[in-house]
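Q: I'm writing a short explainer about Protein FAM78A for a general audience and would like to include a description of its predicted shape. Could you first generate the structure from this sequence?
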Amino acid sequence: MGCVQSGTCKPPFSDTITVLELNASIDPNPTTVDESSDVVLRYRTPYFRASAQVLVPPVLKKEIWTIGWIQACNQMDFYNHYGNEGLSSWELPALRSGRVPALSDSDGVSYPWYGSTSEIYTVVGPTRRETRLTVSMNDNFHPSVTWSVPIATMGSPAQLTGIRRHQCFTTWLVARHEASGEMTLLRTLRWKVRLRIDVDPQRPLGQRARLLEPLLQDQPLVLPSNEPLPTSALTPPNANHAQMLMWRPSNAPPIMVIPPRYTHTP
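A: Of course. Here's the predicted structure. Afterward I'll give you a sentence or two in plain language.
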């Protein structure tokens, strides 16, 4: 375990918070492809799931502790290829430029937590007995990719020829003392999603796309020691709000199709 801010001593109580059980996995099934729409190709990746059982000793003082999951995106390569026309790309400008090492993957409301339901548990002191709690989370991707280039007019022919995706995440199990805001890292996980889909736009709808790899995703890693929590993993914007869609034609300057909802300010 360790503190988020180096040089800051942990309160002795945080040393006694114990992780009794930790499970992390990605469902052992392939990405599914959906061609039911004549406008977009949809796919759904298997779920990443994490669950932890934590033991919190009696809280003798009038204080509040929150135990939960924080997740950040470390890398996002997400390209949709349209043959000789070019490619579209969902991008995180602050991550792509190296201005931040990671971006929050919060739900956009419950910063810094990944979510506010099963993802966190709050212990309100004083308590006479120890608290045994479970916090869990899951994550997957279900995007829509246009058959025609993203700046095409309605009714344009299908030109999508392939999808390539490689996205990496760090997920922390954290205890936070609410009065001070101090965080203690209990566990650190790393996981990723890779994807390669080939598309033949000349084939009939329903017969165009083929998942090439992987059939099964790599399983998450529980790191032997905790990694630091960067500030950009704790504060807005989250990855969904910071991403933008670019169209990068083969023989012309790139075009921003969908701007980010929020921009990162260091």
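A: For your explainer, you could say: The chain has two helices and 17 strands.
Q: Perfect, that's easy to follow.
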